[in-house]
Amino acid sequence: MTLSEFIDANRGELDAIIRRELDRPNFDLDDDAREDWINNDPGLYEWATSEGCFDEEESEEEGEDWSPTHDNATHTRPVERWRIRRTTGGGA
């Protein structure tokens, strides 16, 4: 299963989990944000992996040190921002 297929099949549940974590019931999510959450949240990542996601990606990136939390200029880190807000009481 690809990550896009996983998101399509579980969109409602993913949105509920993310919105509950953010404590923002009407937070607007797109598939890029859902993907970022899956890549950065250990529970969501484990769920996606258990459904067969990332198997193809890991084999395509053979020889590279791939990590689900790899950060670059084009990806955000929603879980880390959430943890910062929750632990400091401030914004990210």
Shape: globular
Total helices: the number is 5
How do the SSEs run, as a string of H and E?
HHHHH
Q: What fraction strand?
A: under 5%
Low-confidence stretches: 59-63, 70-92
- How many strands, what sense, and barrel or not for the largest sheet? none
The Cα radius of gyration reads: 14 Å
Report how far the terminal alpha carbons are from each other: 33 Å
Q: Quickly give the structural class.
A: mainly alpha
The number of strands is: 0
Helical amount = 55-70%
Summarize the structure.
The protein is an all-alpha fold and 92 residues long. 61% of the residues lie in helices and 0% in strands.
Characterise this structure.
- By secondary structure, the protein is mainly α.
- The protein has helices at 3-22, 31-40, 42-50, 55-60, 78-88.
- Helix 1 (3-22) packs across helix 2.
- It is globular and about 35 Å long.
- The termini are far apart.
